[in-house]
């Protein structure tokens, strides 16, 4: 059941303190407040600056390779036997995922602010690679914080970052995954706040990050909307995207929020199953709380301690989610669902075998859910899956699950 | 007048500076926290900042982050920390206690329930690292209504406008974070601190406590000279970590650390 959102409602979000309803905001220690307020002021100015937007668009076209195709998966559609399945090919972007849209934008911001040192957190390593890439291109010093467990399961991306000249810091604290990487990135930022720009990789963090990351990723949805009209002659009936922190999903959803006929599905990591407690699905099974600078749905225990998460995919292994998703859930505009590790792996195999497209394990969650969804829809309906990244980085994980040494 | 205001006013009348030690509740074990609080008082503490452990202490360096992990490994919860204060109050009705921590455990407990329980137990102030006054508009009045002083942070990066606004939302004292960094980093620059604190004093009548980077009698005296009190954290927590096996030895070590600071601060008087 969805509510009707209007352009006016959306333009008032977030409010001037970064709130999406009760979610979002700016919950950080005082040392960072000045930097966040400067960033907000500069971003709101540059957002309206044609030169800044032109520089962003130019990089997206010539460096990232946009627009990414909207591809009709004909064979997959036939095999699934329901709605038409289309794929938004963010996996074809330079560096192999949607993450680069955001790092291009934030690196431009850093340049405008005169910051020479860049830090980032990463889970799967895609955001780390995308950050290291723009830093290499702009000659910026780059430090990437990555949970020690993720350093192991995403070894390929760790090496890519090193080749690109970034320093990768393995984070040994807490659960040794994405949330702990974000803690250490925040600690570094507070310690080097004068010369350092923190490129956050998803629509989480304190205001203005959820706003600006969403704006940079919204190119996905804008293109998809136009391509749907051009190639299919209509808007899609449903959009499906995986949700870790939520940047590829919000990028896809945002330009469609006022299109009432378009159903939105955000797919969280169900891990070993929601009932098992071993998952990373705060929207499906968590409750509102405050972490990493914003109020949002979280996985936590009854005492407010952040819970450990589990997902086969490092990029979804996060106990929080962007605050705008929390708002979209509560107003009923988007549906948040989950699929298990096993279902995601099936999604990976299906797309690989049937279309010759190897999706990232994160994106495979969207694939898996979309296949179930499409099967129950009419043949004249249309589902778009955001293939947020390519699966090369996950080959080791898959091989390991298959018991193969490579 | 709150207990914090009273203590700080008395000290001021005597020309003395407040010694404010911080320890993490539940570290090394929940059973020992109350005893350690009494030790801090015997060693010269005027006010105690009692840390509420959190799973993701983003503003803390490794020393306090590991103290949180030790406390949480014994299941230390916010409710338990409040109970520790209640226990402490059975024999100490004078020393103010400030709970210092992160917002989410309070949010999970419910702000009203938390404020009620804290006030009932004899807590005096609440310092929430990740709660700037902008986000505290609903919460801070719940505290004030129960005579719990909301204590906010000021930082080297805080602009004059914000210093004034934050001070208006604060009572008891304001906490000046002496450098840009996490707890436990050793980079305090006393001249810079003196300049900024002088500036803060010009903008607010509230007492100014300075924390981060105070690790011995020398830094305590240097910072005490320009402020109303010093907050000592990581060096105490580190001492707890290194002496956790033997409670008597731990108490001696804490006393040996605090006592010279007390003397150095008091030597500034008159
Ligand atoms: C390919 C890919 N998709 C999705 C995600 C999840 O992030 P978000 O939810 O912000 O899109 C990641 C994160 O690493 C990723 O690498």
UniProtKB/TrEMBL annotation, chain A:
<dbReference type="GO" id="GO:0005737">
    <property type="term" value="C:cytoplasm"/>
</dbReference>
<dbReference type="InterPro" id="IPR006654">
    <property type="entry name" value="Trp_synth_beta"/>
</dbReference>
<keyword id="KW-0057">Aromatic amino acid biosynthesis</keyword>
<keyword id="KW-0456">Lyase</keyword>
<dbReference type="GO" id="GO:0004834">
    <property type="term" value="F:tryptophan synthase activity"/>
</dbReference>
<feature type="domain" description="Tryptophan synthase beta chain-like PALP">
    <location>
        <begin position="65"/>
        <end position="389"/>
    </location>
</feature>
<feature type="modified residue" description="N6-(pyridoxal phosphate)lysine">
    <location>
        <position position="99"/>
    </location>
</feature>
<protein>
    <recommendedName>
        <fullName>Tryptophan synthase beta chain</fullName>
        <ecNumber>4.2.1.20</ecNumber>
    </recommendedName>
</protein>
<keyword id="KW-0822">Tryptophan biosynthesis</keyword>
<keyword id="KW-0028">Amino-acid biosynthesis</keyword>
<dbReference type="InterPro" id="IPR006653">
    <property type="entry name" value="Trp_synth_b_CS"/>
</dbReference>
<dbReference type="Pfam" id="PF00291">
    <property type="entry name" value="PALP"/>
</dbReference>
<keyword id="KW-0663">Pyridoxal phosphate</keyword>
<comment type="subunit">
    <text>Tetramer of two alpha and two beta chains.</text>
</comment>
<comment type="function">
    <text>The beta subunit is responsible for the synthesis of L-tryptophan from indole and L-serine.</text>
</comment>
<dbReference type="InterPro" id="IPR001926">
    <property type="entry name" value="TrpB-like_PALP"/>
</dbReference>
<dbReference type="InterPro" id="IPR036052">
    <property type="entry name" value="TrpB-like_PALP_sf"/>
</dbReference>
<dbReference type="InterPro" id="IPR023026">
    <property type="entry name" value="Trp_synth_beta/beta-like"/>
</dbReference>
<comment type="similarity">
    <text>Belongs to the TrpB family.</text>
</comment>
<comment type="pathway">
    <text>Amino-acid biosynthesis; L-tryptophan biosynthesis; L-tryptophan from chorismate: step 5/5.</text>
</comment>
UniProtKB/TrEMBL annotation, chain B:
<feature type="active site" description="Proton acceptor">
    <location>
        <position position="49"/>
    </location>
</feature>
<keyword id="KW-0456">Lyase</keyword>
<dbReference type="InterPro" id="IPR011060">
    <property type="entry name" value="RibuloseP-bd_barrel"/>
</dbReference>
<protein>
    <recommendedName>
        <fullName>Tryptophan synthase alpha chain</fullName>
        <ecNumber>4.2.1.20</ecNumber>
    </recommendedName>
</protein>
<keyword id="KW-0822">Tryptophan biosynthesis</keyword>
<dbReference type="InterPro" id="IPR002028">
    <property type="entry name" value="Trp_synthase_suA"/>
</dbReference>
<dbReference type="InterPro" id="IPR013785">
    <property type="entry name" value="Aldolase_TIM"/>
</dbReference>
<keyword id="KW-0057">Aromatic amino acid biosynthesis</keyword>
<comment type="similarity">
    <text>Belongs to the TrpA family.</text>
</comment>
<feature type="active site" description="Proton acceptor">
    <location>
        <position position="60"/>
    </location>
</feature>
<comment type="function">
    <text>The alpha subunit is responsible for the aldol cleavage of indoleglycerol phosphate to indole and glyceraldehyde 3-phosphate.</text>
</comment>
<dbReference type="InterPro" id="IPR018204">
    <property type="entry name" value="Trp_synthase_alpha_AS"/>
</dbReference>
<dbReference type="GO" id="GO:0004834">
    <property type="term" value="F:tryptophan synthase activity"/>
</dbReference>
<comment type="subunit">
    <text>Tetramer of two alpha and two beta chains.</text>
</comment>
<dbReference type="GO" id="GO:0005829">
    <property type="term" value="C:cytosol"/>
</dbReference>
<dbReference type="Pfam" id="PF00290">
    <property type="entry name" value="Trp_syntA"/>
</dbReference>
<keyword id="KW-0028">Amino-acid biosynthesis</keyword>
<comment type="pathway">
    <text>Amino-acid biosynthesis; L-tryptophan biosynthesis; L-tryptophan from chorismate: step 5/5.</text>
</comment>
């Amino acid at each position: 059941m969805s509510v009707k959102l209007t352009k006016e409602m959306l333009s008032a979000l977030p409010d001037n303190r970064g709130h999406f309803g009760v979610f979002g905001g700016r919950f950080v220690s005082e040392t960072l407040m000045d930097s966040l307020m400067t960033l907000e002021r500069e971003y709101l100015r540059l957002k309206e600056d044609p030169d800044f937007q032109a520089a962003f668009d130019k990089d997206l076209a010539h460096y990232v390779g946009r627009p990414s195709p909207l591809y009709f998966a004909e064979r997959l559609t036939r095999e699934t036997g329901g709605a038409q399945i289309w794929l938004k090919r963010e996996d074809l972007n330079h560096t192999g995922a949607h993450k680069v849209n955001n790092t291009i934008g934030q690196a431009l911001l850093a340049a405008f602010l005169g910051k020479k040192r860049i830090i980032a957190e990463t889970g799967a390593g895609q955001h780390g690679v995308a950050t290291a890439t723009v830093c290499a291109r702009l000659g910026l010093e780059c430090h990437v914080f990555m949970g020690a467990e993720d350093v192991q399961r995403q070894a390929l991306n760790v090496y890519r970052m090193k080749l690109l000249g970034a320093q990768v810091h393995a984070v040994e604290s807490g659960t040794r995954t994405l949330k702990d990487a974000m803690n250490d990135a925040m600690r570094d930022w507070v310690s080097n706040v004068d010369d350092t720009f923190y490129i956050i990789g998803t629509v989480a963090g304190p205001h203005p990050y959820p706003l600006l990351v969403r704006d940079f990723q919204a190119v996905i949805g804008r293109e998809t909307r136009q391509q749907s009209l051009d190639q299919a002659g209509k808007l899609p009936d449903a959009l499906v995207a995986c949700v870790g922190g939520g940047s590829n999903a919000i990028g896809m959803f945002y330009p469609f929020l006022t299109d009432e006929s378009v159903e939105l599905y955000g797919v969280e990591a169900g891990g070993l199953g929601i009932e098992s407690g071993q998952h990373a699905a705060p929207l499906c099974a968590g409750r509102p709380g405050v972490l990493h600078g914003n109020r949002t749905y979280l996985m936590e225990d009854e005492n407010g301690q952040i819970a450990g998460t589990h997902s086969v995919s490092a990029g979804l292994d996060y106990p929080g989610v962007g605050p705008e998703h929390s708002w979209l859930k509560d107003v009923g505009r988007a549906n948040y669902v989950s699929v298990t590790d096993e279902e995601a792996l099936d999604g990976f195999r299906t797309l690989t075998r049937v279309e010759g497209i190897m999706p990232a394990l994160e994106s495979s969650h969207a694939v898996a859910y979309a296949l179930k969804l499409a099967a129950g829809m009419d043949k004249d309906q249309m589902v778009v899956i955001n293939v947020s990244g390519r699966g090369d980085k996950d080959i080791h994980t898959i091989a390991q699950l298959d018991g193969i040494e490579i | 007048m709150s207990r914090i205001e009273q203590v700080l006013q008395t000290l001021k009348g005597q020309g003395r500076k407040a010694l404010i030690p911080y320890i993490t509740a539940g570290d090394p074990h929940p059973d020992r926290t109350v005893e350690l609080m009494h030790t801090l008082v015997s060693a010269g503490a005027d006010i105690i900042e009692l840390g509420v452990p959190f799973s993701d202490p983003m503003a803390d360096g490794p020393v306090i982050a590991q103290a949180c992990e030790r406390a949480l490994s014994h299941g230390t919860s916010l409710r338990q920390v409040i109970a520790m204060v209640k226990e402490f109050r059975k024999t100490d009705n004078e020393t103010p206690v400030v709970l210092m921590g992160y917002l989410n455990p309070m949010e999970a407990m419910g702000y009203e329930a938390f404020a009620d329980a804290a006030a009932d137990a004899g807590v005096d102030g609440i310092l929430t690292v990740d709660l700037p006054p902008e986000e505290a508009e609903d919460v801070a009045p719940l505290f004030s209504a129960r005579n719990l002083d909301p204590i906010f942070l000021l930082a080297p990066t805080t602009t004059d406008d914000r210093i004034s606004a934050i001070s208006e939302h604060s009572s008891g004292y304001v906490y000046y974070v002496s450098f840009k960094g996490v707890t436990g980093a050793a980079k305090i620059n006393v001249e810079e601190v003196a300049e900024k604190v002088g500036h803060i004093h010009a903008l607010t009548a509230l007492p100014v406590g300075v924390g981060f980077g105070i690790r011995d009698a020398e830094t305590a005296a240097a910072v005490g000279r320009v402020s109303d009190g010093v907050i000592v954290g990581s060096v105490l927590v580190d001492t707890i970590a290194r002496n956790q096996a033997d409670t008597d030895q731990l108490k001696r070590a804490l006393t040996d650390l605090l006592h010279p600071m007390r003397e150095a601060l008091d030597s500034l008087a008159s």
